[in-house]
Amino acid sequence: NLELKKNRDDLFFEKEYNLNTKPLEIDLLVIKKNTDVQIDNETGRIFRGHNILEYKSPRDELDIDTFYKAAAYASLYKSYGKTLDTPMTFAGLLQEIEKIDGIRRIRFMTSHPKDLSDELIEVMGNSQKICKHLHLPVQSGSTDILEKMNRRYTKEQYLGLVEKIRKAVPDISLTTDIIVGFPGETEADFEETLDVVRKVRYDSAFTFIYSKRTGTPAAVMENQVPEEVIKRRFDRLLKEVQTIASQACAVHEGTVGEVLVESICDHDPGMVTGRLSNNLLVHFPGGRELIGCYVDVLLKECRGFYYIGEMHRTQKAPV
Question: Which of 48, 184, 282, 299 lies 20 to 30 A from 14 at CA?
Answer without folding.
Answer: 282
